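Appendix B, record 7
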Amino acid sequence: MVLPSKMPQLADLDLLLSVERYGSVGKAAQAHSLSQPAASIRISAMERRLGLRLLERSPAGSKLTEDGEMLAKYARNVMQAARELLEFGSDARSSEARRLRVAGSPAISEHLVPEWLNRSRSSFGDVRVEVQTGSVDALRRLVLARHVDLAFIDGWCRAGHHGQQQYRDDLATRHICDDELAVVVGPGHPWAVRGTPVTVPELAAAPLVLRERGSGLREFTDELLGAAPTPRGYVELPSSAAIKQAVATSRRVTVLNVSTVRAELAEGRLHRVDVDQEMPAKPVYAAWNERRGLPELAQELVEVAASKGSPVPVIGPGQKSRKAGSRTRPRPRKAVAVDVHEAIA
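Structure tokens (predicted):
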């Protein structure tokens, strides 16, 4: 819609309302930081554009005519709508500036993202942080559609690429940390007090609790077991919480990320078992839409995550450190990564 030339300006309508309020063009002019002649000229120009006489002027002051009162009635509605529009724009900018939308793989969203948020200098206390989780494919779609500012994904990069990477589909990634895998048992399991590392064949032959097929943790567990014989019996569960519960109250064995069992290790509800070969580590990456870039708050969280990395496991009371319980020399961790772009293409 093209506004007609005789449409009054908001400032002129506001001036007219001030004349109505104060009963004087001079006092209205003062309230609007105008000279009285300038205010009179603006009112007169509006009268000419509309073809109406809006004011009755006298030595005692000015009052609105019948047409002026009718225009003032509409002007109040217009000015109220204008104020609401300005408030909406201000609130929207403020809300967007202090909002951070994050997504991540289930274990990262549950265990690492809260740690990174709390370990930042500001703890994002005045920010509305929204965290959601999903599969790798779902997280990829969220990033591409700009429904989240940032996603943290394990294994989302080619092995050996630990810098910022850009891929097709406008995706960019940055390596954050490597989350080591650990063999874990309950306090009643014989391996909880074992003084020597277990072998991979022993692990494969043990009653295992595993994540469901297709999950990233299951793929890394299969990587660890390698060429060992397939376990005869095992339990598949759909979450790390369910696996921890199953292991803590039985003599079953599992493989979990160190970050997901940190609290249980510290409290002695689970025990970490040394293995006679290097343990894989799941690389964690930040991913974002390259075209959009990283908003300020998202950039801050990426820097915090990269500097803090994965929480260090805590040794619980009565538990031996890995060095004390191991007769093998320390081994470097092996970071294993998956190119999910090829997997889901």
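Remarks on this record: The chain has a mean pLDDT of 80. Residues 66-97 form the longest helix (32 residues).
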